[in-house]
Amino acid sequence: IKTVGALGVLSSWLGGPPFPDHLDPGYVVTIDTLMKILAIQLRLRYGIPVLIMGETGCGKTALIRFMCSFLQVQLFVLNVHGGITSEDIIAWMHDGPMTAALADPRTDVYVFFDEINTCSCLSLFKNIMCEGVMLGRLLPPNIKFIAAANPYKFKD
Predict the structure, then answer these.
(1) Could you tell me the mean pLDDT of each successive run of 10 residues in the chain, 156 residues long?
(2) Parallel, antiparallel or unpaired: strands 143-149 and 137-138
(3) Label partner for 32 (CA 20 to 30 A): which of 10, 42, 59, 76?
(4) What's the rounded Cα separation, in Å, for the pair 127 and 122?
(5) What is the chain's Cα-based Rg?
(6) 62: helix, strand or coil
(7) Where are the alpha helices (DSSP H) in 72-121?
């Protein structure tokens, strides 16, 4: 399938224009990409947490950016690292995604936690992504969460 055909399939299944002019023309949509986007959307539609796992540089972030660009949804990306704290994550959530989600409850807001397994705040991410709760309060239902992780490698 060529990129044009794949965009047509995405458009018919997810809605939107068949050949959006705002997309990165250098991004090649393959059958694999198409299936991943459709699987992600199905999970998000039914409130199932999405975790993408893959080696560094395999295209996890590019896939999410392309998908959100295609859907024309607002995307907030948090680049997680070893020095990030729970307080940093909570402040970022309040200042960006929650503000946007509350401003227009009818519009989905996508949040992408990139490299989620590089910090010590996994319990906070679990509460946010799986329970939809932060600091004991329910998060707006129009926030859709996706996370990416690199596989753990054992050292010899």
Answers:
(1) 73 71 78 91 92 91 92 95 96 97 96 94 95 96 96 74
(2) unpaired
(3) 76
(4) 9
(5) 16
(6) helix
(7) 86-93, 99-103
Measured distance CA(111)–CA(3) in Å, rounded: 26
Question: Whole-angstrom Cα distance, residue 143 to residue 133?
Answer: 11
Q: Tokens for 81, please give them.
A: 């690292």
Give the β-pairing of 133-134 and 137-138. Answer: antiparallel
Alpha-carbon gap, residue 25 to 21, rounded angstroms: 9
Residues 12, 4: Cα–Cα separation, whole Å:
12
Show Cβ contacts of residue 5 under 8 Å, excluding neighbours closer than 6 positions.
none
Phi, psi of 148 (to 5 degrees): -125, 145
